[in-house]
Write a structure and sequence with these properties.
The complex is a heterodimer of chains A (about 450) and B (about 400).
Chain A lengths: L1 H16 L21 E5 L1 H4 L8 H5 L2 H9 L22 E7 L5 E6 L5 E7 L3 E6 L29 H4 L13 H6 L5 E5 L2 H9 L10 H15 L5 E5 L15 H11 L7 E7 L2 E6 L5 E2 L11 E4 L2 E4 L13 E2 L1 H25 L2 E3 L1 H11 L1 E3 L2 E3 L18 H19 L15 E2 L1
Parallel strand pairs in A: 1-6, 6-7, 7-14
Antiparallel strand pairs in A: 2-3, 4-5, 8-9, 10-13, 11-12, 15-16
Chain B lengths: L1 H5 L21 H5 L13 H4 L1 H4 L6 E6 L2 E9 L6 E2 L4 E2 L2 E7 L6 E16 L12 E16 L4 E24 L4 E22 L5 E7 L2 E13 L12 E9 L1 E12 L2 E11 L5 E6 L9 E4 L5 E11 L4 E10 L17 E13 L2 E18 L6 E18 L1
Antiparallel strand pairs in B: 1-5, 1-21, 2-3, 2-4, 2-21, 5-6, 6-7, 7-8, 8-9, 9-10, 9-11, 10-13, 11-12, 12-15, 13-14, 14-17, 15-16, 17-18, 18-19, 19-20, 20-21
């Protein structure tokens, strides 16, 4: 029995062992051939963390560059300052919130109008009104400016035309002359990401081909060359993103011709077609029946359909006759789609060849988002796709991303960097970031 | 239109059990010897290991044991250096065996209660795989009335009917966030039943080698009115009726064993077992919800498990006439093929070592202690269904104790 006690001790010792937790050996993260000491992010609204139709603090906090910078810290990344709105003005420009669903299941979005960071509105002669936001004066590593096109990067007065850029500049409104390119390259950096160029096509597309023009292909290539030349001038390495196909976003795929026509037919079975004012060629537009290849924008007020419009032939229902077609601004028709797609492919050819010539990493957002649209995306048990609201990737404006969408983009950029520079920046945990928030 | 908008939210619930959940802790003496026993007639646990051997035992047994089990897993998401651990929890597999037959009779009857399947895994609500699984608590209680008959001096047979009472409680997060960014939650909770049998034949050869062959049948366990509870943002509450009912069924696999026992001298006892576990029928895990909506569809998760082979060996040494020392070990293949490993029980090939001691407290009373250490080999996986990608590694620690009264 004396021995038995000893064995009890042994067993007790073994039980204690069970406090041990298993662990897995992982290779130490490495920076490879890149230097992440000062990483700067160059780009537009996507880079700024714009979401739900606005730029606001919570969105800025989960911008893809900020996620990347956080992950870079284990491989020598430095501080990453963003021009955040103050906590007291956290809602920035204001944004959309999902506040419920109508009886027919359509979503109700409501603008957030409190705690904004709007400083005022300034009329710029020959341009129009510019909304001014609370100035930011600290250090900046995230240079994302909502609305900026590649076309604007060397345009000196741009700081007076875009309130999101103006707030970053020290000068008083209307007096700025610093080009965007000079501004972002003023201070030494070791690594950059550049995702400019989306708005050069998107501005045209989201206005239904009516409110903006596509940046000329050669101009685009020339400016891209200029930008990359400047960004790599002091030996910095970097990653660039291609331009997504404009038709891969829910802004163009949620309200479809089929769905609208179906709803009309329910009430009025003899209706045969929706009519749109479609591009014929050049700048010639003519009314014709809409097909599934014509894309209606997300912001189209569907209740306009069928409202009586006064015409020389009497009152005719809106959108249902060749004399009362749906306004051009609400439809990116098939020819406009083809035009935008052609330009985007040309832009991307320029981006890839310029990046290759400088040995830069490329995140092919064009291919990635087309794949997501085609096949969806599964991430750690989260089923994602390009649908509006339910898809989980795109925010309420149908163009910009949710925090989860930005986390996925950050990981794609990181993968591209790791592949190019032999680094091992750890990926972020996508599940930590939310999709669309439901009430 | 809401359907149109939200259909794709579909919480493809991959709520799922997994292998790894066969629990081989059916008697302290046998655990000490590497969980061998098909070819031995050690004590009342023969009701489980080989009902055919029970009739060869000279004594009647009433015995009970418990083997608290701590399953510790770690997950390292692909491309990161993060490590996520399961919470330390103890699952309590237990055994109860009673055998009786008149002195010198050729037969015995018995009753066995044991827990051959179970799982307790708690990854918590913040780990990256929470949309695949957060927590699983699965238990199967087998009740097995048994009869064993000695046909000749060298052969005996036995068999029992199995009634299984199973319970399951599992939770996972739903990737739908509320206004504060919190994910939804799903919990499935229910109990069900199933039937099967356990039969064996036991030979005593002239060479002194004992041989056992057994088949424990599949027990298809069905849960009929489980409770499904969902916590989702209010605007989607109608799409996730809560509480809802669900039914599910799972084929707890059949096991074929052959085992050998041998006494090279009076102090030593050696044993060897080989098992084939028939996981093949576990192709799909389905959950059928009583109320379906556009967002809440029945789910069918592919499992595609395959049959596994396990080998075990063990030895017992009588240090004194009261004290037995035991040791053993074994190796078992994973049932989950690549691409089908789920975090509820991160299945992998496993090796284990066991040790035990037995002590005769009194003429009719034995106490047995056992300890098992199980190491699941590191396994890097991307699950087809969830795309959860990373490396799992698990260690299992199982102390155990039993008391046996025999006469």
């Amino acid at each position: 029995m004396k021995h038995f006690k000893h064995y009890l001790y042994i067993i007790a010792g073994l039980v204690w062992l069970s406090a041990c937790k298993p662990s897995i050996d992982t290779p130490k993260p490495s920076k490879g051939s890149a230097d992440f000491t000062r990483y700067i992010a160059v780009g537009n609204s996507l880079t700024a963390g714009f979401a739900d139709g606005g730029l606001y603090r919570a969105g800025q906090m989960v911008s893809y560059p900020s996620i990347m910078a956080k992950q870079m810290q284990s491989v020598g990344g430095g501080v990453f300052n963003q021009p955040l709105f103050d906590a007291g003005q956290a809602n920035g420009s204001g944004y959309l919130q999902l506040t419920g669903f109508n009886a027919d299941g359509t979503p109700i979005t409501t603008p957030v109008t409190t705690n904004l960071a709007i400083r005022g509105i300034q009329a710029i002669p020959g341009f129009g009104n510019v909304t001014l936001y609370a100035k930011y004066t600290g250090d900046i590593e995230n240079y994302g400016v909502p609305g900026i096109k590649l076309l604007h990067v060397s345009y000196a007065p741009y700081g007076n035309l875009n309130g999101f850029y103006e707030r970053l500049l020290p000068g008083a409104e209307g007096t700025n002359t610093t080009t965007y390119l000079d501004f972002v390259t003023a201070k030494q950096f070791t690594f950059f990401s550049n995702w400019l160029g989306n708005n050069d096509a998107l501005g045209y597309a989201t206005s239904g081909g009516a409110g903006d023009v596509l940046t000329d292909k050669a101009t685009f290539a020339g400016l891209y060359n200029l930008v990359i030349g400047r960004l790599t001038a002091t030996g910095a390495k970097g990653v660039v993103g291609t331009i997504p196909d404009v038709t891969s976003i829910p802004y163009f795929n949620t309200i479809t011709v089929g769905a609208v026509l179906g709803a009309v037919k329910k009430a009025n079975p003899q209706v045969q077609a929706l009519y749109i004012n479609a591009l014929v060629s050049g700048t010639t537009y003519a009314p014709r029946p809409a097909t599934a290849k014509d894309l209606i924008v997300l912001t189209f007020p569907t209740n306009k359909i069928g409202l009586p419009i006064s015409t020389p032939y009497g009152n005719l229902p809106y959108g249902l006759t060749p004399y009362t077609p749906i306004d051009n601004q609400f439809v990116l028709d098939a020819n406009e789609v083809a035009l935008a797609q052609d330009y985007v492919q040309s832009y991307n050819a320029a981006i890839k060849s310029i990046a290759a010539s400088k040995g830069l990493a490329v995140f092919d957002a064009y291919t990635f988002l087309n794949n997501v649209k085609e096949h969806g995306l599964l991430e750690s048990g989260i089923s994602l796709n390009s649908n509006y609201i339910s898809g989980g990737i795109f925010s309420l404006d149908g163009v910009h991303l949710t925090p989860r969408g930005y986390a996925i983009v950050a990981n794609e950029f990181i993968k591209a960097i790791n592949a190019k520079y032999g680094s091992s920046i750890p990926l972020t945990d996508v599940s930590e970031y939310s999709g669309v928030k439901f009430p | 239109m809401r359907k149109l908008l939200l259909l794709a939210l579909a919480m493809a619930p991959v709520l799922a059990f997994a292998q790894g959940f066969q629990v081989n802790l059916e008697g302290q003496k046998q655990i000490g010897m590497g969980h061998t026993g098909t070819g031995l007639a050690q004590d009342g646990a023969a009701l489980f290991f080989n009902p055919g051997a029970v009739a060869t035992e000279s004594q009647n047994y009433v015995q009970a044991g418990i083997s608290p089990l701590s399953f510790n897993s770690v997950f390292n998401p692909a491309g990161t250096s993060e490590q996520y651990h399961t919470a330390s929890k103890w699952a309590p597999p237990f055994t109860f065996y009673g055998t009786w037959g008149p002195k010198g009779a050729r037969w015995k009857v018995g009753m066995a209660v044991y827990t051959p399947f179970g799982g307790l895994t708690d990854w918590g609500t913040t780990w990256p795989g929470r949309f695949a699984a957060e927590r699983l608590d699965l238990k199967a209680f087998y009740f097995q009335p048994t009869i064993s008959i000695k046909i000749t001096d060298w052969m005996s047979i036995g068999g029992g009917l199995v009634y299984n009472h199973g319970t399951v409680d599992l939770t996972r997060a739903i990737p739908i966030e509320n206004g504060t960014g919190q994910s939804g939650q799903a919990e499935l909770n229910g109990s069900g039943k199933g039937y099967g049998w356990n039969a064996g034949v036991y030979f005593t050869t002239q060479s002194g080698v004992t041989v056992g062959i057994t088949h424990r049948s599949q027990v298809k366990t069905t849960i009929n009115d489980g409770t499904a509870t969902f916590a989702v943002p209010a605007s989607l509450a109608t799409s996730f009726p809560s509480p809802n009912q669900f039914s599910a069924s799972i084929p707890l696999p059949a096991t074929n064993s052959i085992g050998f026992g041998y006494r090279p001298c009076s102090k030593w006892l050696l044993a060897l077992d080989v098992n084939i576990v028939e996981w093949d029928p576990f192709k799909t895990l389905s959950f059928d919800y009583k109320t379906n909506t556009g967002l809440l569809q029945d789910t069918h998760s592919p499992r595609n498990y395959h049959n596994t082979v396990g080998v075990r060996g063990g030895a017992q040494y009588m240090a004194t006439n009261k004290l037995a020392l035991r040791f053993g070990g074994g190796y078992a293949e994973a049932a989950a093929p690549n691409g089908y490993v789920t975090p509820e029980v991160p299945d992998a090939d496993r090796a284990y070592l066991t040790a035990g001691i037995g002590y005769k407290l009194a003429q009719h009373l034995d106490i047995d202690l056992s300890f098992e250490y199980e190491h699941l080999l590191q396994r890097t996986q991307t699950n087809f269904e969830t795309q959860l990608s990373g490396t799992f590694k698990s260690e299992v620690y199982i102390p155990g104790i039993s008391l046996a009264y025999h006469w």
